[in-house]
Amino acid sequence: MLSQKTRKIIEEKYSKSGVEYDYNRLQDPRGRLLSDLDIQIFYKMLPKSFNALNVLELGSGTGRFTIPALKRGFSLMATDVNEIMLKEIHKKVVEMGYVDQCQIQVDNIFDLSFNDQSFDFVFSLHVIPRFLTIEDQRVAITEAVRVLKPGGQFLFNYRNSQSLYGHLYSEYAATPQQIKQILDEVGMRIVHMKGKRFTTRKLINIMPFFISRWIVALDLKLCNCRPGRCWDVFVMAVKE
User: Fold this and answer.
1) Cβ atoms within 10 A of the Cβ of 123, count?
2) Domains in the chain, ordered, with CATH?
3) Phi-psi region of 75 (alpha: psi -120 to 50; beta: other; left: phi over 0)
């Protein structure tokens, strides 16, 4: 059952306009640094072959990862619990000429409207870590895997409680062992992982901008190394 804390944060935080959301992540120079790093890691982890893949994004927000996926040639279904944010995606899709590649639908990651085994590839970034208990994260992962076909892939990220920064995210950080156990329970096998070691929004905000750029560049170079002590871990798993 979804915890009351998670339910409250979803209702309060993710029912707002996407204008401020976009400004903080895509227009503010420091927010843009972090978003660019995330998108570069996202690109590194996308399936190399995407022809005829049936793709689902969970928690699309205003399209921070939707638009990069469309630019790479994917066709996908973008979903979010917040209809207002999805309207922002629609505007971008129309303006950029991706209407034929992108369907948009209000949906809840905890109770998806799709049938079992509907998609070849599911991705959900900066969504799972927002759920405030490991059980909430388990439910979200399980539901995402339910709609994934055998042999399909699931890309998501989590906050690593065993990292240096993990203590700052005590309410929703998970251990690598907990994430692996959840994936094992739903028949998923991790195929590769990448992660961020140093870059956080708080750190970028307090550092001079040129140092922040250096930190982001260092993180991008190190993202291919073992992510055991990374605070933000990106996981690609396959359904067996």
Assistant:
1) 29
2) 4-239 (3.40.50.150)
3) beta
Half-sphere exposure in the Cβ direction for 3 (13 Å, CA)? 15
State the Cα–Cα distance between residues 117 and 152, nearest whole angstrom. 9
* Of the candidates 172, 142, 136, 164, the residue with the CA atom closest to the CA atom of residue 154: 142
Contacts for 48 with CB less than 8 Å, ≥ 6 apart = none
Cα angle 177-5-180, degrees, rounded to a multiple of 5: 10
| Packing angle of the helix pair 29-45, 209-222 (nearest 10 deg) | 10
- Contacting residues for 74 by C-beta, under 8 A, at least 6 apart: 46, 50, 53, 55, 101
Is the distance from CB of 56 to CB of 119 less than 8 angstroms?
Answer: yes
Q: Could you give phi then psi for residue 90, rounded to 5 degrees?
A: -60, -45
Give the contacts of 145 (CB within 8 A, at least 6 positions apart): 122, 154, 186, 187, 188, 239
Amino acid (one-letter) located at 144: A
Q: What is the pLDDT of residues 71-126, one digit of tens each?
A: 999 999 999 999 989 999 999 999 999 999 999 999 999 999 999 999 999 999 99
Q: Which residue has the tokens 């950029």?
A: 96
Question: How far from chain centre, in Å, is Cα 191?
Answer: 17
